[in-house]
Amino acid sequence: MALVPLANKGNYLHVYDFHVLPGKGEEFIEVFNKFDYSDENPFHKTPAQIKDGVLCRDSEDPDHFYLIAEWADIEVHKEIRAFVAKEIKPSFIQLVAGGHAKFVPVYAKVVSATPQEYLDKAQ
Length: 123
Description:
3 helices; alpha+beta
């Protein structure tokens, strides 16, 4: 299998960096996944999402998480995020320390990614 860059130059990553309520990490993962992989999740229904997100747990703090995904258009992500917060109100937010106010991403433009030909040579 050929190596591929984590994200492509010119796209965007959203990075959520948040804590859940103390001791609620396992419950958060379960409730988050239930929403994330449901038909109710509008994030997965737009071509603006390039790569599906990954939920990461801090290896030293079980209540600290990151959610990262690749998008072609962060304005679309912002619109969907606002809709989800206002209309859907997923239950996993109740487990985030600080709620919606703390479940806010930072957006970063991918300005460099290893060209595929270099990754192929590394095989």
